[in-house]
Amino acid sequence: MVMYKIETISTKKDKRIKVIIGIITFILLVLAFFGGINLAKYVNDQNQKKNLELALYKQENLTANQEGQEQIQQENSKGEQDNQGTNPNQAEQNISQSPNEQQDNQSQSENQSNINNSEQENQDQMQNNGQDQVQNNSSVSNQNGLTQEQQNAISNIYSSETKRAFLTFDDGPSSTVTPQILDTLKKENIKATFFVLGTMVKSNPQIIKRERQEGHYIANHGYSHVYSKVYANEKSAYEEYQKTNKLIQSALEDNTYQSNIFRFPGGSNGGKYEKIKTKTKKILKENGVAYLDWNCLTSDSAGAKTKSAIMKNLKSTCAGKNSIVILMHDAPNKKLTAETLPDVISYLRQQGYQFYSIEDIL
Hints:
The chain is an alpha/beta fold. It is built from 16 helices and 8 strands.
């Protein structure tokens, strides 16, 4: 009888232990299940974040697609050729390119005289607008804007007795490309100028802060890069400038920062919006904002798909020029630009150029 009771008690203990072990096992399985779900969600979120910028970059400009195709057809019908180093079959390539790339392709055609004859163009512009400059010398309504002397420094940027190079990057910042560019600039101890888009600033405020902390100049490329929005009327481009400037201030956590320099999407000259651009220039000037194009480019957004192509375009468009403003891009799909940047810097140094940001001449 005693043995029977002992066995019964032992059996009950074994059952309790098994039940406890079963409960613990069940709890661990549940925790592992939900932990696995959370881990998978985290990994998926990280992957989606990298793709989100490129999707946003293209989505913001989707409405410009048809407009860009029409402009390309108009330019081609007039017999205009792409400028130095660009692909003669560019119109066909644009079908597979993003709207921003289509617009940048157009800008190179529209600003051909700016690239080939920039120094002469600036002299002509100063002569034609000399009277307006005198009249507007004291009419700057934005107290935080550039002085007339500073605006003149931007207007004369293509003229220099010494060899100087201004690296400029449009359409960023992006988390996939801009950090790599910043790493290279930091390694080479070079300061550059970033013409940022408001839509991208909104997505990557931390990169804007890094750009500024590392001594680069944050300039303004408008908010959308959609031609029909930027050039809806003579005031809309300046409104996009203001919107982007506020986003820059927010990213920097500095309400006093003024970008003060605007780069027209598509360039400041030519195209079907030329009359609106002309009126916009007056509004910018009245508010102490300068505008800046370029006189050297890599065509990284206009058909150059290899390092050798980028370097060929750079060499051909900077040849014979002392002061060069180089157009490049740090949009999400411009990894090739970041990869080629060390070669660009090396070549320019070999040619005797010193590097500056736009801020250095203000």
